[in-house]
Amino acid sequence: MSTPELLLSLEGLAIRHVDRLLVDDVTVQVRAGRVTAVCGPSGAGKSVSARACMGVIDVLPGLVRGRLRYPGHSGDRDWFEGVAGGGRARHTALFEGTRALRGGYLSYSPQAASSALNPGRTIGRQLELAIARRAVPVPAAEQPALMHALLHEVGLAPWVAGSVPGELSGGMCQRAALAIAIAPAPKVLLADEPETGLDPVLRRQIVELLVTVGKAHGCGILLISHHEDTVSRIADDVVRLRPPGSAAGAA
Amino acid sequence: MVRLFAALLLPAAVPAILTALIWALPGDPAEIICPRASCEATDALAARWHLDEGPWGFYTHWGRAALAGDFGMSWRVLQGVPVSEMLAGAVPMTLVLLAAALLPVLAGAVGAGSGFLPRRADGSLHVAGLVPAVIFSLFFAAVIALRFGGNSFGEEATLWRLVFGAIVLSVADGALAGAVGGVRALFRTERKQRYVQIAALRGEGMLENVLPNVAAALAGQLRARVLHLVSGLVVVEVVLKIDGLGDLLWSGTLKQDFGVVLAAATGFAAVSAALLLAQAMLEIAVALHIRRAPRVAAAVSA
Amino acid sequence: MNRRTPAMLAAACVLALAALAAFAPERLPETLPDRANLGPLGSFPFGTDDRGRPLLAYAQQGARVVLFPAAASAVLVGVLAVCGGLLRCVGDERVDGVVQAFGEVLGALPRMVVILVAALLMGSGGGLLPLGLLWALLSAPGAMDEAASVAERLGGARFVEALRAHGFSWSRIFLYHIVALNLRPVVVRQAAETAMQVTFLELSLSYLALASEQPSFTHPDSMRSWADILQLGYLSLALGKPTGHALVLGLVLVALVTASAMLLTRAARAR
């Protein structure tokens, strides 16, 4: 059986904030059609690692060492080259350099979506903007049908497109955020603790929906979670983080 | 809704309140406006302006005439000259002065919101804003007096009066500092909102996400700044000898020319009403913009 | 941030102004032409005007003109700000609506226009106090709004409920927990700024009256205002008259008022 395509490779990541290592020697690989879970206790550096995967390092002195590649986009190019020790300017350059990848090649599905979605835009408008970031533009005539399909896929009725996030429940917002994350047809879908703030039933539904929809679109899924039961149920690969100083590795 | 209501009511309410206040003062309104001791035409004034018909009679006659552009005659400032003529001369100057003063305020606000204006500039603006307009004005008035002579009103002198007036209006009494500080605080608070940080992770720009959500608050701040500028007009115009609406209001107040004061105050009320209306319209536009949603329809199967 | 230093400095500034006002002469001294335009380094602390009258007397009378009205206006704004904050803690939407509508209406007009109309109706004998109180009323919406925001951040009616559940009395909750502990910086800042603005209002109105060679709305003809000092300063700039020391004195008095307001605000913010 052929190995699924490698879409994201983060090797040996170490990030420092002031005088403390936030993460040390973290390695994450995301492959098409597979779920890679990054788990660990609070303070282990899950969110920091996830943001680093997206080219976002917003602490200083920041990157100490590591390699970041997007083989499905830019081959063997190491996006962290020259960033370590480069101060604010280099980290800003990394952020700006990877901007085009975010919302397109890489897509982010946030936790607690009620506060993560723009309160001043309808769900439909946010979907529209996400669709506009597709690598292959969607003709205007096909957009209504595409939006309908996306909403249906995540279990939302068409009327949700005319609502602002404040008018929806937490679960509906999470589903809408997933639809917005999938809309640009990303290669890598990064889901940051999607179960946060949801009841146990909804938690299971959302995670399963995430995996189903993600795989149906051929994405590689990077799931950040601290729920062991979720991770053991759905993850194909697991990266367990511990607070810096301990060893971390893939399951 | 309150704002819209206030905007429509203000130009009518201000002369109504003034009328009520004139009648609330002890004595005959005609004698208050034109005391027999110093004024010969008290009875003629009373008849001409329907002062003998009570407050409602006066107000309705004045209001009807005002709608037709007739604000009566000046009783004391320039006796016998139609107030509408005085307004026609004063209003354009004031509008030019206001527009010129608004430019640095808007530039400062845009600079603060976009981040182009560095934060370290705020301190200097704040210190400059502590200086009252009267002090700035007297310095510039002295400069004009030295350069052109105190009562020179040639083209160049008038231009410099307007330039200095605009500088004083925008900087003194904290107008510019308030605009910069207010907008910066607004954007800083909004940038800290979670949805902005998440939008960055989606590759979206900060301004495109934040602007619709702060537009209404920005409009409120802008209206407050313009009102601030309008309030400062009187001092600036009088000290720098600019023949504008503020100078007219001051002359009317000083000489107790109720006709001029009524017209000038109504003019200011109209400016305030226009600002309120603009803000209300912008809020409606923002609300409609927020509600924009594309069409969603199931695909039609072949 | 240390509270003591700014508080002491503010107290010193205010006391200096109060001392000036307290010892103000009822009338300016007689003219002494041989002592005209003396600088501050002579026998008169702040120099003399073009008629030989000491500028100290001008400063004292000017302080007397502004001190009480500025203080009264500050108190009015402070009280209204406290009301605005406490009303938000009551949690009644109708009350909130009324306060908001009050703010919208009052805030819709340029303040100077309202002040001038009031001055017109009161005539030249009205004095600064009613105009100052009117200015405070016009400033109230902003002060009430700011205090209400602070109360909102505390938790409004929920904050009060929580403290009641802990057994505190209404008066302790409102006076100590809300006003003294949380609203104090806002109230003091708004009050200090209003006092400063009323002082500058007097300065402006009197200067305009001087420029128009008319009696001022804010004080009787027998009294002098700080605007007279500034007028002397203007004459030194524009006409080269030897009254430059008057300009310096005028600016120092303005700086003293501004410093008082800023130091009071800083002292109130410090813990």
Which short descriptors sum up this protein?
heterotrimer, B: 302 residues, mainly alpha, 75% helix, C: 271 residues, elongated
Describe the 3D structure:
The complex is a heterotrimer of chains A (251), B (302) and C (271). By secondary structure, chain A is an alpha/beta fold. Chain A has helices at residues 46-53, 71-74, 87-97, 113-116, 123-131, 143-153, 170-182, 200-216, 228-234, and strands at 6-17, 20-31, 35-39, 61-69, 106-109, 188-192, 220-225, 237-240, 249-250. The mean pLDDT of chain A is 89. With 302 residues, chain B is mostly helical. Chain B has helices at 2-24, 29-33, 42-48, 54-67, 83-114, 120-129, 133-148, 155-171, 175-191, 194-201, 206-239, 245-254, 258-290. In chain B, helix 5 (83-114) packs across helix 9 (175-191) and helix 5 runs antiparallel to helix 11 (206-239). The relative contact order of chain B is 0.14. With 271 residues, chain C is an all-alpha fold. Chain C contains nine helices and no strands. In chain C, helix 2 (55-90) packs across helix 8 (226-239) and helix 8 (226-239) packs across helix 9 (244-269). The mean pLDDT of chain C is 87. The chains are: A alpha/beta (251), B mainly alpha (302), C mainly alpha (271). Chains in contact: A-B, B-C. Chains B and C meet through helix 1, helix 7, helix 11, helix 12 and helix 13 of B and helix 3, helix 4, helix 7, helix 8 and helix 9 of C.
